[in-house]
Amino acid sequence: MDDEKEQMYIELKENILKNIGNISAVKFKNKFELQVESKRTLDNIKSVKDLYNILEERDLINEDNLTVLQKILKYLLHYKEVNSISDEENHISFYKKQYPTTEKCKKCRKDNMEETNEENLEFVPHTPTAPSLNNIFNSAGGPEEVKGYEQTTSKLDRAISEVSREVGMNWRHLAVCLKIKESEISNIKRKFQNEDEKAAMEILQIWKSKNRKKKSDDLIEILIENLRNKIIYQDDLADKIQEEYLS
Length: 247
Description:
mainly alpha; 247 residues; single chain; 56% helix; 13 helices
C-alpha cells in the first residue's frame, strides 16, 4: 500500500469510528459469526469498533475492500442504532473516487449494497464446513498405503498449486471459508508477509492435511464452492478450476 493511500484509509477509519465506534454491535454481530470464527471473540464484541477491528484483523476490511464496512453501516441503520449513515457513506464514496478498490466481483461488477431488508442483509450465505483436501503422501505411511491414489493426488496438487498462484491477497478470505483456525491464519500472515502465493499454499496444505478420506473430485468441488463465496469473489478462478479438473 502506498503511503498516501494508507494515510487516506487510516483517516477514513478514524473518521467513521469517531462517529459510530462506540455504538453497540450486539444486535447484529452474529451476522459475522462465520467471519469471526471464534465464539469467544464474538462474545467479547460489544461495540462497532470492536467488530471493525476484528474484521480488519481478518483482512475482511482493508484499504482495498470496504464492502463489509458498508454492511455494518446498513445493519446500524436497519436495526435503528443510527438515524442516518450519509456522512459515513460520503467518506467511503470520496475514498473510492480517490483510490478505486478491488472488492467487486469480476463478473457482477456491483456491490449490491442498496437493499436494506433483513433478507438481503445476510452477509454471506451459509458455507458448508469444508473438509480438507487429502494430504495422502504426507499423511500415509508410504507408497504401499497410497497405492491407487497417485493420479488423484496429482490432480489435487495441481488444483491447489493453481489456486495458490491466482487467489492473491484473497488467501485470507479463503482461509476463513475453509475453516482454518484464526491462530493459524495469524501465524501464516506473519510468516509470509507480502508472499500471497506461499501463504495460500500453506493454508491449502493445512486444509488438505486435516481430512484423509474424502474423494478428490468432492474435495475439488468444495474448493470451487468456497472460491465462489461472496467474501472472496473468485468466480473466474472457480470456473477455471472446474473446467480444468472436473470437466
